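Why does residue order matter? Because the sequence determines the fold. Keep that principle in mind as you read this record.
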Amino acid sequence: MIHKKQNILIRIYYEDTDSLGLVYYANYLRYFERARTEFFRSMGYELNYITDILKIYFVVRSCNLKFISPARFNDEIEVISRIKSLKKEIIQFDQKIELGGKLLVKSIINLACISQTGRAIILPNEIYVNLKKISD
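Structure:
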């Protein structure tokens, strides 16, 4: 069954934190990236299949993050991902990070589709149709 949103849990390790024991801000981008990878996997699309066989690549075109409250060493955060809008050449993700239901970080991340040469391309129809079924 395909779900409109994908949730993953991530444990915060010492290596993720700054000298105060708070998650270093750039690491939230890494968590969002992991969650998007799992989002595609949950739909049956391994990213290496998309890149190696279909020859398309997703790159971050833009991102907007709002930091509300920090995660700390040893927290187990939940990264929640859903597609906010979809065009044939842009996938817009609405992602957030929560701890025990409390919002820590929210983001809007736009992914562009490009070829191996870096040229903008559109999503293959099969992927577009499947993503359209679950986009808002």
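The beta strands are 5-11, 57-67, 76-86, 90-99, 102-114.
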